[in-house]
């Protein structure tokens, strides 16, 4: 089930760029080689699952907690996909340091509820995947690393958005939440 969720995640990353930013479309748009940290985290999650499955198979039986994890994965994927499809050409896999002419402040759709819905989606997708696989070590590790990463990323990105959109972004920020704990 994790491999299916992973395949769906990467497919939607590619599809969103193909539909809304075709000039930036490359094989990298799948985000398969996103970063060494992402690769290590994914390998770590699979490794923890396999080791615990071998030594403690009773911990890996399908139950209500796995189902909760699956529901969180689906919610996270839906939020991230809605974010990409709402932002359209304004969505990028990379922080944009310069405002392009076509950039607009997206405040409708899922962006009317969450300030960074793609980050919200990935955060909960990643944590849900570890809960679904019953990986307690990676669940805690993912939570810590994701919190650190998104705290820094959102701070930097919001400074740029204030520079790009000024008071409009400040007003938008005041009306919305990130949906991420303590960020």
Automatic annotation (TrEMBL):
Catalyzed chemical reaction(s): [protein]-C-terminal S-[(2E,6E)-farnesyl]-L-cysteine + S-adenosyl-L-methionine = [protein]-C-terminal S-[(2E,6E)-farnesyl]-L-cysteine methyl ester + S-adenosyl-L-homocysteine
EC number of this enzyme: 2.1.1.100
Keyword Methyltransferase tagged: yes
Gene Ontology cellular-component terms listed: endoplasmic reticulum membrane; nuclear inner membrane
InterPro entries xref list: ICMT_MeTrfase, PPMT_MeTrfase
Keyword annotations: Endoplasmic reticulum, Membrane, Methyltransferase, S-adenosyl-L-methionine, Transferase, Transmembrane, Transmembrane helix
Gene Ontology MF, one: protein C-terminal S-isoprenylcysteine carboxyl O-methyltransferase activity
Organism domain of life: Eukaryota
Subcellular location: Endoplasmic reticulum membrane; Membrane
First-level EC class: transferase
One biological process term in Gene Ontology: methylation
Annotated transmembrane regions: 38-56, 68-87, 122-150
Membrane topology term: Multi-pass membrane protein
Family: Belongs to the class VI-like SAM-binding methyltransferase superfamily. Isoprenylcysteine carboxyl methyltransferase family.
Descriptive protein name: Protein-S-isoprenylcysteine O-methyltransferase
Native source organism of the sequence: Lobosporangium transversale
Taxonomic path: Eukaryota, Fungi, Fungi incertae sedis, Mucoromycota, Mortierellomycotina
């Amino acid at each position: 089930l994790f491999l299916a969720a992973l395949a769906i995640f990467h497919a939607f990353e590619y599809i969103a760029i193909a539909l809304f930013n075709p000039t930036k479309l490359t094989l990298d748009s799948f985000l398969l080689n996103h970063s060494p940290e992402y690769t290590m985290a994914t390998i770590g999650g699979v490794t923890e699952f396999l080791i615990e499955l071998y030594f403690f198979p009773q911990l890996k039986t399908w139950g209500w907690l796995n189902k909760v994890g699956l529901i969180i994965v689906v919610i996270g994927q839906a939020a991230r996909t809605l974010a990409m499809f709402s932002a359209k050409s304004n969505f990028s896999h990379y922080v944009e340091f310069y405002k392009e002419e076509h950039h607009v402040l997206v405040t409708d759709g899922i962006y009317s509820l969450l300030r960074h819905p793609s980050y919200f989606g990935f955060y909960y997708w990643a944590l849900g995947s570890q809960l679904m696989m019953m990986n307690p070590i990676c669940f805690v590790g993912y939570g810590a690393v994701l919190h650190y990463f998104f705290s820094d990323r959102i701070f930097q990105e919001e400074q740029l958005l204030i520079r790009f959109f000024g008071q409009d972004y400040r007003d938008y920020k005041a009306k919305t939440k990130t949906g991420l704990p303590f960020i």
